[in-house]
Design goal:
alpha+beta, conserved putative lor/sdh protein from methanococcus maripaludis s2 fold, Elongation Factor Tu (Ef-tu), domain 3, Helix Hairpins, 6 helices, about 35% strand, elongated, signal, Periplasmic multidrug efflux lipoprotein
């Protein structure tokens, strides 16, 4: 028996199209192309001399701070200066009501007059009785009584004179003057208030602010590294510091080649003048392992005020010569360890743990882990996985991204 299939032209074309679709579905898809290597920027590890500094948090204080107190009881009569104004030594700051102390002085002077009169009378009586005693006209007992009365009168005069001096002193305390020149703070008590009731009342504080004292801690290790600089502090007084300031402002070292101390303000900007270390505390703090140092800074414009915070920066002795440096941003920090993405000649990345030293501006000293000339990734660290192949692009080391080699020191830092 013969079977016949009849297809219209349209049905036949649809069937052929279905077969083509099935055939294409059974074929294997072409594999995707591998992504190109990630582009990274690299720079070589270089060896050079860099200035290494020690930084520490510092506090600013006046060279001298004097609390102005009312030493006698009374009503505050008047304030004679403007709050926060610059005052001169001996300038009148406050006055306390004087009438009570003027009356006390008048009374003390009157008592002195009476004592002087009694003294004169006693001396006359003694002279008379001494003459009578010589001709046996007076007993020895009466002569001794006259001598005792004369000595008592002398003592009364001395006591009265002391009372006068005390009354004069108390009266002088009603005029309160600045013991030093400087900047006077805000008044703590206003006119009309009773002062000196339960002891000397604090009225204000005057601070000598040119120069200022800057106190900061230095680690024991850094202290040991700088024996010559920090153990020759004898004789570094205010007069010595004032002789150093003009030389430091001109960029010259001070006595013994001392380059001075730099102060960074709270906004990160350096203060316009350098200072000098003048004193060190007697001991190292065993809890922090630091020793407190004091430096003096010129402050002609009164830009620095007591209570300010900043950071001092001073050169670290014997550090920064012929060291390996890399850009700070090339370091990967994780849980206190540092690594660098080193790109080899085959363009493959090797994450290598390194030992780092202090930072110098935008650079960081590397003490171990890499060699001079090796290339490290500075941009594109997110793509620099260990073992990955990258497309490195060299970053030319110019003066724009690397500091110039340190100039030879003119003295010990």
């Amino acid at each position: 028996m013969t079977l016949r299939f009849c297809f219209s032209p349209t049905t036949l074309l649809a069937a052929l199209a279905g077969i083509a679709v099935l055939a294409s579905g059974c074929s294997r898809a072409a594999p995707p192309k591998a992504p190109p290597p990630a582009a990274v920027t690299v720079t070589p590890v270089v060896r050079q001399d860099v200035p290494v500094n020690v930084e520490a948090v510092a506090t600013v204080d006046g060279y001298a701070n004097v609390d102005i107190r009312a030493r006698v009881r009374g009503f505050l009569e008047r304030q004679h200066y403007d709050d926060g104004a610059t005052v001169k030594e001996g300038q009148l700051l406050f006055t306390v009501e004087r009438s009570e102390y003027e009356a006390a002085l008048a009374s003390a002077r009157a008592a002195l007059s009476r004592a002087l009169a009694a003294q004169a009378h006693g001396r006359t009586q003694l002279e008379r009785r001494t003459a009578l005693a010589k001709v046996d006209g007076l007993s020895q007992q009466e002569l001794e009584d006259a001598q005792a009365q004369a000595r008592d009168a002398d003592g009364q005069v001395e006591a009265a004179r002391a009372q006068v001096r005390q009354a004069e002193l108390n009266l002088s305390y009603t005029a309160i003057r600045a013991p030093i020149g400087g900047v006077a703070g805000l008044a703590q008590v206003r006119a009309g208030n009773l002062v000196g009731q339960d002891g000397p009342t604090l009225l204000t504080t005057v601070s000598q602010v040119d120069p200022v004292r800057v106190t900061f801690p230095l680690s024991e290790v850094d202290y040991v590294r700088a024996p010559d600089r920090l153990k020759k502090l004898a004789g570094r007084d205010l007069a010595w510091a004032r002789r150093q300031f003009p030389r430091l402002d001109q960029g010259q070292p001070g006595d013994g080649g001392d380059p001075g101390v730099e102060l960074l303000l709270s906004d990160g900007k350096p203060y316009a003048h350098r200072g000098v270390i003048v004193a060190a505390n007697r001991q190292v703090d065993p809890t922090s392992g630091t020793i407190q140092l004091q430096a003096l800074f010129p402050n002609p414009d009164h830009a620095l005020r007591p209570g300010q915070y900043g950071r001092v920066r001073l050169r670290q002795e014997g550090a920064g010569g012929n060291v390996l440096v890399v850009p700070e941003k090339s370091l990967v920090q994780l849980q206190g360890t540092y690594s660098l993405a080193v790109v080899g000649p085959d363009a493959k990345v090797q994450l290598r743990q390194v030992k780092v030293g202090p930072n110098v501006g935008a650079l960081r000293i590397v003490e171990a882990g890499v060699s001079e000339g090796e290339r490290v990734v500075v941009d594109g660290l997110q793509a620099a996985r260990d073992g990955a192949t990258v497309a490195p692009k060299d970053l030319t080391a110019t003066a724009a991204n690397l500091p110039a080699p340190a100039a030879p020191a003119t003295g010990r830092p």
